[in-house]
């Protein structure tokens, strides 16, 4: 095994790609008009897809200003803008399947694909909402495919309240919808546990980052 995480033995037997969505998607209504959809094990062949993306995606390290210092962003990033070709045919299928399921509800397709590579437990994303652009004022949706080692996605209401925790990995789909980006925050915290790498693939609507 070269992936550094424990892949499922069954993974890939049914062929690679997204499975059904439909009634296999479990929606949880959250407070303040937010909702969260979860579809475990949505993409089969997730190990192979993970390996290909790790190879072919042009991962970038970024530095950001934090208060009076410039710090390393603790994860690698890549961004595919509207119209950019997908780096992998399975990801193109994923995008199509998301649109088939969600466009009737959202009234528009997913347009951009952001990717994060969490190299190990020291990589993370701090509490935030995806509020650059429309997400700060309008309902939106962010659909995230998780590949590789499971990591916790945390959610908390902005006004304070209990933290929700979902371990995501290995082909799981999570979709944050409704007011989630402006009324809740999410994070992938660092962990001291020895964990392998994880890739998250975030699909967003036009004008949302
Ligand atoms: O890696 C994830 O699942 C979340 C990433 C995220 O929140 C973001 O890039 O805005
Ligand atoms: Fe985010």
Automatic annotation (TrEMBL):
Residues 109-207 form the Fe2OG dioxygenase domain. One of its GO terms (molecular function) is dioxygenase activity. PROSITE patterns: FE2OG_OXY. Keywords: Dioxygenase, Oxidoreductase. The keyword Oxidoreductase applies. This is Alpha-ketoglutarate-dependent dioxygenase AlkB.
């Amino acid at each position: 095994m070269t992936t550094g995480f424990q892949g499922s033995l069954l993974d890939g037997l049914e062929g690679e790609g997204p499975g059904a969505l439909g009634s296999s998607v479990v929606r949880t209504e959250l407070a303040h008009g937010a909702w969260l959809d979860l579809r475990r094990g949505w993409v089969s062949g997730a190990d192979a897809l993970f390996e290909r993306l790790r190879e072919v995606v042009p991962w970038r390290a970024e530095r950001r200003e934090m208060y009076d210092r410039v710090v390393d962003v603790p994860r690698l990033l890549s961004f595919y803008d509207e119209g950019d070709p997908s780096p992998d045919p399975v990801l193109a299928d994923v995008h199509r399947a998301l649109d088939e399921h969600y466009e009737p509800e959202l009234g528009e397709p997913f347009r951009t694909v952001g990717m994060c590579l969490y190299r190990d437990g020291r990589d993370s994303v701090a509490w935030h909402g995806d509020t650059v652009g429309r997400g700060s004022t309008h309902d939106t949706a962010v659909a995230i495919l998780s590949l590789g080692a499971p990591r916790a996605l945390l959610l908390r209401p902005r006004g304070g309240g209990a933290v929700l925790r979902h371990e995501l990995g290995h082909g799981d789909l999570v979709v944050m919808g409704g007011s989630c980006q402006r009324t809740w925050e999410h994070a992938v915290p660092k962990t001291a546990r020895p964990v392998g790498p994880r890739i998250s693939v975030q699909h967003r609507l036009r004008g949302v980052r």
